[in-house]
Amino acid sequence: MQTAIGHTISDLHLLTTRSSAAKMMPSLHHAASEAGLFVLNGDIFDFQWSFYPDLKRSLQYVEDWIDDLVEQYPRCQFVFITGNHDSLPAYEKLLEDLSGRYANLAWDPFYLKVGEKVFLHGDVHHSPTPETLAAYRSRWHGPPHKPWTHTVYYVFAWLRIPRLIHELTPADRPVADVITYLKAELGPHFGDVQDVYYGHTHKPQSNFLQQGLRFHNTGATLHGVRSRIQTFLYDPADLEQGLQERNHHHVKTVGASVA
Length: 259
Known about the structure:
alpha/beta, Purple Acid Phosphatase, chain A, domain 2, 5-stranded mixed β-sheet, 10 strands, about 20% strand
Protein backbone atom coordinates (compact mmCIF):
# COMPACT_ATOMS: atom_id res chain seq x y z
CA MET A 1 0.00 0.00 0.00
CA GLN A 2 1.30 3.44 -0.95
CA THR A 3 0.91 6.36 1.44
CA ALA A 4 0.56 10.07 0.77
CA ILE A 5 0.08 13.15 2.94
CA GLY A 6 -3.34 14.73 3.29
CA HIS A 7 -4.64 17.71 5.23
CA THR A 8 -8.07 18.92 6.28
CA ILE A 9 -9.55 22.13 7.68
CA SER A 10 -13.11 23.32 8.31
CA ASP A 11 -15.05 26.36 9.49
CA LEU A 12 -12.92 29.16 8.09
CA HIS A 13 -16.11 31.26 7.84
CA LEU A 14 -14.57 33.44 5.15
CA LEU A 15 -16.68 36.43 4.05
CA THR A 16 -17.39 37.42 7.66
CA THR A 17 -15.96 40.09 9.95
CA ARG A 18 -15.56 37.60 12.79
CA SER A 19 -13.31 35.23 10.84
CA SER A 20 -9.63 35.09 11.77
CA ALA A 21 -8.80 32.91 8.75
CA ALA A 22 -6.31 35.45 7.37
CA LYS A 23 -3.85 34.33 10.07
CA MET A 24 -4.26 30.74 8.87
CA MET A 25 -3.54 31.42 5.17
CA PRO A 26 0.27 31.00 5.23
CA SER A 27 -0.10 27.63 7.00
CA LEU A 28 -2.91 26.58 4.67
CA HIS A 29 -0.85 27.35 1.57
CA HIS A 30 2.19 25.58 2.99
CA ALA A 31 0.05 22.52 3.71
CA ALA A 32 -1.38 22.56 0.19
CA SER A 33 2.13 22.76 -1.29
CA GLU A 34 3.14 19.45 0.31
CA ALA A 35 -0.15 17.53 0.21
CA GLY A 36 -1.64 15.12 -2.28
CA LEU A 37 -5.11 15.75 -0.84
CA PHE A 38 -6.69 18.70 0.94
CA VAL A 39 -10.25 18.34 2.24
CA LEU A 40 -11.99 21.64 2.99
CA ASN A 41 -14.61 20.27 5.30
CA GLY A 42 -17.53 22.68 5.26
CA ASP A 43 -18.38 26.25 6.32
CA ILE A 44 -15.31 27.46 4.47
CA PHE A 45 -17.51 30.38 3.46
CA ASP A 46 -20.39 31.97 5.36
CA PHE A 47 -22.85 33.60 2.98
CA GLN A 48 -25.57 34.84 5.34
CA TRP A 49 -22.98 36.71 7.40
CA SER A 50 -21.09 38.04 4.38
CA PHE A 51 -19.73 41.57 4.57
CA TYR A 52 -20.79 41.98 0.92
CA PRO A 53 -24.33 43.33 0.49
CA ASP A 54 -25.27 41.02 -2.37
CA LEU A 55 -24.70 37.39 -3.28
CA LYS A 56 -23.06 38.18 -6.62
CA ARG A 57 -20.12 39.93 -4.96
CA SER A 58 -19.79 37.17 -2.37
CA LEU A 59 -19.66 34.53 -5.11
CA GLN A 60 -17.01 36.52 -6.99
CA TYR A 61 -14.87 36.63 -3.84
CA VAL A 62 -15.32 32.88 -3.42
CA GLU A 63 -14.45 32.14 -7.04
CA ASP A 64 -11.30 34.26 -6.85
CA TRP A 65 -10.26 32.61 -3.57
CA ILE A 66 -10.71 29.09 -4.92
CA ASP A 67 -9.03 29.96 -8.24
CA ASP A 68 -5.99 31.30 -6.40
CA LEU A 69 -5.67 28.22 -4.21
CA VAL A 70 -6.31 25.49 -6.76
CA GLU A 71 -4.20 27.02 -9.54
CA GLN A 72 -1.14 27.38 -7.31
CA TYR A 73 -1.00 23.71 -6.30
CA PRO A 74 -1.94 21.55 -9.30
CA ARG A 75 -0.45 18.42 -7.71
CA CYS A 76 -2.85 18.63 -4.76
CA GLN A 77 -6.38 17.27 -5.05
CA PHE A 78 -8.80 19.68 -3.36
CA VAL A 79 -12.18 18.42 -2.21
CA PHE A 80 -14.77 20.88 -0.89
CA ILE A 81 -17.48 19.48 1.39
CA THR A 82 -20.34 21.87 2.06
CA GLY A 83 -21.73 22.75 5.49
CA ASN A 84 -24.80 24.56 6.72
CA HIS A 85 -23.31 28.03 6.12
CA ASP A 86 -22.06 27.28 2.59
CA SER A 87 -24.72 24.98 1.17
CA LEU A 88 -26.38 27.59 -1.06
CA PRO A 89 -27.45 26.23 -4.46
CA ALA A 90 -25.62 29.11 -6.15
CA TYR A 91 -22.38 28.14 -4.39
CA GLU A 92 -22.87 24.47 -5.26
CA LYS A 93 -23.34 25.46 -8.91
CA LEU A 94 -20.12 27.47 -8.72
CA LEU A 95 -18.29 24.46 -7.30
CA GLU A 96 -19.69 22.30 -10.08
CA ASP A 97 -18.49 24.79 -12.70
CA LEU A 98 -15.05 25.06 -11.09
CA SER A 99 -14.69 21.28 -10.87
CA GLY A 100 -15.15 21.23 -14.64
CA ARG A 101 -12.43 23.86 -14.99
CA TYR A 102 -9.85 22.22 -12.70
CA ALA A 103 -8.90 18.55 -12.76
CA ASN A 104 -7.66 18.81 -9.16
CA LEU A 105 -10.94 20.11 -7.73
CA ALA A 106 -13.95 18.08 -6.60
CA TRP A 107 -16.82 18.69 -4.21
CA ASP A 108 -19.70 16.96 -2.48
CA PRO A 109 -22.62 18.25 -0.40
CA PHE A 110 -22.34 15.51 2.21
CA TYR A 111 -19.12 13.52 2.60
CA LEU A 112 -15.95 12.01 1.15
CA LYS A 113 -14.81 8.49 2.02
CA VAL A 114 -11.14 7.62 1.50
CA GLY A 115 -10.53 4.03 2.55
CA GLU A 116 -10.96 3.84 6.33
CA LYS A 117 -11.37 7.63 6.64
CA VAL A 118 -14.51 9.68 6.12
CA PHE A 119 -14.88 13.47 5.98
CA LEU A 120 -18.11 15.38 6.58
CA HIS A 121 -19.08 18.73 8.01
CA GLY A 122 -21.03 17.28 10.93
CA ASP A 123 -24.16 19.47 10.98
CA VAL A 124 -26.31 16.38 11.42
CA HIS A 125 -28.12 17.05 14.71
CA HIS A 126 -31.70 15.85 14.13
CA SER A 127 -30.71 15.20 10.48
CA PRO A 128 -30.00 11.47 10.21
CA THR A 129 -30.39 11.27 6.40
CA PRO A 130 -29.25 13.34 3.39
CA GLU A 131 -32.85 14.42 2.82
CA THR A 132 -33.38 15.75 6.34
CA LEU A 133 -29.93 17.34 6.28
CA ALA A 134 -30.77 19.19 3.06
CA ALA A 135 -34.01 20.45 4.62
CA TYR A 136 -32.14 21.61 7.72
CA ARG A 137 -29.55 23.48 5.67
CA SER A 138 -32.20 25.42 3.75
CA ARG A 139 -32.55 27.62 6.85
CA TRP A 140 -29.22 29.22 5.90
CA HIS A 141 -30.23 30.04 2.34
CA GLY A 142 -31.78 33.44 3.08
CA PRO A 143 -30.39 36.88 2.21
CA PRO A 144 -27.39 38.32 4.09
CA HIS A 145 -28.07 39.67 7.55
CA LYS A 146 -28.41 43.41 8.12
CA PRO A 147 -25.13 45.30 8.75
CA TRP A 148 -25.97 46.17 12.36
CA THR A 149 -26.34 42.49 13.24
CA HIS A 150 -22.72 41.92 12.16
CA THR A 151 -21.57 44.32 14.86
CA VAL A 152 -23.65 42.56 17.48
CA TYR A 153 -22.32 39.17 16.43
CA TYR A 154 -18.73 40.46 16.41
CA VAL A 155 -19.05 41.71 19.99
CA PHE A 156 -20.66 38.40 20.95
CA ALA A 157 -17.65 36.56 19.50
CA TRP A 158 -15.13 39.02 21.00
CA LEU A 159 -16.54 38.21 24.44
CA ARG A 160 -15.74 34.56 23.66
CA ILE A 161 -19.26 33.45 24.41
CA PRO A 162 -19.35 31.03 21.43
CA ARG A 163 -16.15 29.37 22.63
CA LEU A 164 -17.58 28.96 26.12
CA ILE A 165 -20.72 27.34 24.72
CA HIS A 166 -18.71 24.91 22.61
CA GLU A 167 -16.31 24.07 25.42
CA LEU A 168 -19.22 23.23 27.73
CA THR A 169 -20.90 20.93 25.19
CA PRO A 170 -20.12 17.27 26.00
CA ALA A 171 -17.82 15.86 23.31
CA ASP A 172 -19.82 12.67 22.88
CA ARG A 173 -23.08 14.42 21.94
CA PRO A 174 -22.18 15.63 18.41
CA VAL A 175 -20.14 12.48 17.85
CA ALA A 176 -23.20 10.31 18.50
CA ASP A 177 -25.16 12.33 15.92
CA VAL A 178 -22.38 11.86 13.36
CA ILE A 179 -22.36 8.10 13.93
CA THR A 180 -26.13 7.90 13.41
CA TYR A 181 -25.86 9.86 10.18
CA LEU A 182 -22.94 7.84 8.81
CA LYS A 183 -24.69 4.55 9.47
CA ALA A 184 -27.64 5.75 7.38
CA GLU A 185 -25.47 7.34 4.67
CA LEU A 186 -22.83 4.64 4.24
CA GLY A 187 -24.89 1.54 4.92
CA PRO A 188 -22.69 -1.59 4.90
CA HIS A 189 -19.60 0.53 4.12
CA PHE A 190 -19.86 2.09 7.58
CA GLY A 191 -18.01 -0.98 8.85
CA ASP A 192 -14.92 0.11 6.89
CA VAL A 193 -14.56 3.37 8.80
CA GLN A 194 -11.92 3.90 11.47
CA ASP A 195 -11.33 7.67 11.42
CA VAL A 196 -13.93 10.43 11.13
CA TYR A 197 -12.93 14.02 10.35
CA TYR A 198 -15.68 16.57 10.96
CA GLY A 199 -16.26 20.22 11.79
CA HIS A 200 -19.28 22.31 12.78
CA THR A 201 -18.79 22.19 16.56
CA HIS A 202 -15.84 24.65 16.47
CA LYS A 203 -14.16 22.49 19.13
CA PRO A 204 -10.74 21.02 18.22
CA GLN A 205 -10.48 17.31 18.82
CA SER A 206 -8.02 14.52 18.04
CA ASN A 207 -8.39 10.77 18.50
CA PHE A 208 -11.60 11.02 20.50
CA LEU A 209 -12.80 7.42 20.80
CA GLN A 210 -16.45 6.51 20.45
CA GLN A 211 -17.92 3.13 19.43
CA GLY A 212 -14.54 1.98 18.13
CA LEU A 213 -14.03 5.04 15.91
CA ARG A 214 -11.49 7.86 16.19
CA PHE A 215 -12.92 11.37 15.79
CA HIS A 216 -10.98 14.46 14.74
CA ASN A 217 -12.18 18.08 14.56
CA THR A 218 -10.19 21.07 13.31
CA GLY A 219 -12.05 23.75 15.28
CA ALA A 220 -12.81 27.11 13.63
CA THR A 221 -10.94 30.25 12.57
CA LEU A 222 -13.18 32.59 14.55
CA HIS A 223 -12.02 35.20 17.03
CA GLY A 224 -11.70 33.53 20.42
CA VAL A 225 -11.96 30.00 19.01
CA ARG A 226 -9.07 27.61 18.36
CA SER A 227 -8.32 26.06 14.96
CA ARG A 228 -5.69 23.81 13.44
CA ILE A 229 -5.03 22.02 10.19
CA GLN A 230 -5.03 18.26 10.73
CA THR A 231 -2.75 15.90 8.85
CA PHE A 232 -3.39 12.29 7.87
CA LEU A 233 -1.93 9.59 5.66
CA TYR A 234 -3.93 7.90 2.91
CA ASP A 235 -3.56 5.50 0.01
CA PRO A 236 -3.92 7.30 -3.37
CA ALA A 237 -5.81 4.27 -4.67
CA ASP A 238 -8.39 4.78 -1.91
CA LEU A 239 -8.72 8.43 -2.92
CA GLU A 240 -9.31 7.48 -6.55
CA GLN A 241 -12.01 5.04 -5.49
CA GLY A 242 -13.55 7.61 -3.15
CA LEU A 243 -13.74 10.19 -5.92
CA GLN A 244 -15.36 7.67 -8.25
CA GLU A 245 -17.94 6.80 -5.60
CA ARG A 246 -18.46 10.50 -4.97
CA ASN A 247 -19.18 11.08 -8.66
CA HIS A 248 -21.85 8.36 -8.65
CA HIS A 249 -23.37 9.65 -5.41
CA HIS A 250 -23.06 13.25 -6.62
CA VAL A 251 -25.00 12.69 -9.83
CA LYS A 252 -27.88 11.08 -7.96
CA THR A 253 -28.18 13.65 -5.16
CA VAL A 254 -27.31 17.01 -6.63
CA GLY A 255 -27.51 16.67 -10.38
CA ALA A 256 -30.94 18.25 -10.51
CA SER A 257 -30.00 21.17 -8.26
CA VAL A 258 -27.02 22.28 -10.34
CA ALA A 259 -28.48 21.66 -13.78
